[in-house]
Amino acid sequence: MTSDQEQTNDAERELFGGRLRMDEASARHEQVPLEIPFHRMAGRVPALLARSAAMGWAVDRVSLVTVAVAEVGRGTATAFGLLATNEVLVDLFAGGPTPDRVRAALPSLLVVAGTAVLVALLTALSALAAGRLEPQVERAASLRLLSHAIRVELADLEDARVRRLLETAEYGTDAARRLIGHAVAVLNGLISLVAAAWVLTVLHPILLPLLLLTAIPKGYGTVRTARRVYRSIQRWLDHVRVRRRLSDLLLAPDPARELRAHAVGPHLLRRYRELTDQSTAEQKRLALAAAGTDLAAGAVSGAATGGTYAVLGLLLVSGHLPMAAAGTAVLAVRNTTSQLSGLVRNVNYLYEQSLYLLDLDRAVALARERAIPAGGRPLTGQPAVLELDDVSFTYRGQAAPAVTGVSLRIPRGSVVALVGDNGSGKSTLAKLIAGLYLPDSGRLTWDGTDIRELDRDTVFDRVALVDQDFLKWPFTARANVTLGRPERAHDEAALQRSAEFADVDGLIRTLPRGWDTLLERGFHGGQGLSGGQQQRFALARAHFRDASVVIVDEPTAALDAASEIEVFHRIRALADSGRTVVLITHRLASVRCADTIYVLDRGKVIEHGDHDGLLAAQGSFAAAYRLQAEQFRDGPQQPPYAGATTASGAGQASRRREDLDG
Ligand SMILES: Nc1ncnc2c1ncn2[C@@H]1O[C@H](COP(=O)(O)OP(=O)(O)OP(=O)(O)O)[C@@H](O)[C@H]1O
User: Fold this and answer.
1) Where mainly located (predicted)?
2) Class assignment of domain 386-462+547-617?
3) Is the CB of 428 within 6 Å of ligand 1?
4) Interacting residues of 398 by C-beta distance below 8 A, sequence separation 6+
5) Is 81 in the pocket of ligand 1 (CB under 6 A)?
6) 86, 160, 169, 599: which one has the fewest Cβ atoms less than 10 Å from its Cβ?
7) Assigned superfamily of 472-545
8) What would the pLDDT profile of 62-92 be if each residue is shown by its tens digit?
């Protein structure tokens, strides 16, 4: 390992908290195969050819068979061409007048020309079929990865190891395509080699082992270089990921505002340069090592080639090889040498690509293992009650639980509000209710059935979620609203109702292409939206889903005051029409619309009741409510508890009060 790999630079330390390159220990932990014995690689060739054939067979049998037939034909034609060349030479070197010798050689010459044309035709046919096969195999590999990735449990998807593997696996989809190309080349190399070796053996048996001596050093060199590259890619993967992310940040329009106003650009650019300096040094190291290996392999191989020609000369001088056969042998030696080194190179590429494919296999296996279980007891009808009984949940890799011993009841047709300080566990609780995370302990039931026993797809089907970090999909206005129920995307009446619910109908009318306007700046015809407008689209989307449980996390954070009041009225109306609403908000005046309010503090429910009841109880909710209300009074303000600065401040207010009381 070089000192460059050991050193951690400022960019790594400051921006990412430490070294971004994988060491031996973590590679072992993550089961990344950094070392591959040479014999294992060679031994896997038949399995890899079979794997390539199976992948091709699954997507396009006709093209696969065409490639195989064309390659076998090509190899056979090459062998016949070589034998015919030998015949030509034999005829030309025979005794008698020149015109007679040329006449005698003519049929063999025609065979040489014919096989050359045939080889060209078969090469074109094979290339055509392989060209059809490769993109289909890549597409299948990529669909395989994505279809499994979208089923991974959210908690696992957030796990760094899973994320890393999924990103590595993306190389595997490209590798699947390349694997086909290299498999074809290996097949061709093997067939041509067998043909040429057979011709050589016919000419003189000693020529073949000598040839192997020339090819092996070069092949070994190629393999060493490729393994070094693979090892480097694996080690530097996180480095590549953060560099890509950093360059995206420097290019994208959203970070551009702070980048310019805070003059972050030059600083990040400096850090980016430091990172690229590291990777350039690694590239230089690889290039230098590759050149050294090539040189050593070339020298050994060159000496072996010299030896082969020397043996050929000796055989000729000693009369063990006729002149014509020596001529053919020279051709065959040249042909076979390049075939052999090409073959070894392609075997190596084949193996190298298979390692990436192996990453894809590992990612798919992990995704399967961590998938949301299919099946289970299906939910029928609309749930009458959701209940949490002593539910606790800790995020993967975190020491403290995000939710501790929470019990609550959400009957159908009610609005249940979750309030509390930042980080008190509201969003986590909402995601638990939605079935996105499973409790570590306690029971979460839908109509009495534990969520673990339920068919989670039927749970999701009943949920509409407006996430706190709601997504602005880079699609058309229509897709932005209908994405949760794409099968009803052209139900114009439903679309209109959702637009009215979220108050985007007026906005749609002003868009250049109405519902078909692309809501993404930076594309032709794309339209930008304000933060509040984006939030309205998220609300419209949740409404369009027409689900029985609506979970809205800070649904009005980006809305103006009038819209905020209106949205809370509409949310109340949703519950009145029989839906269940879980509402998370810091606007304590607005939770008046809730039937029950649960106040959370550090993952625990510390109070619950309706708005008036909680105010009358004079607890932490009442204190936080007063804190917010006082902000609207005239004159200089004095917060009741210094330091209670969060929007809701419920928990902080309660803790201050305890301190004061104590
Ligand atoms: N994906 C995550 N991975 C690890 N920890 C998380 C994750 N999301 C939240 N947390 C942690 O869990 C705790 C509860 O977070 P949560 O988002 O539920 O709080 P919240 O009450 O919704 O906060 P806010 O009012 O700021 O939205 C916090 O300590 C937070 O750091």
Assistant:
1) membrane
2) alpha beta
3) yes
4) none
5) no
6) 160
7) P-loop containing nucleotide triphosphate hydrolases (3.40.50.300)
8) 999 999 999 889 888 887 888 888 888 888 8
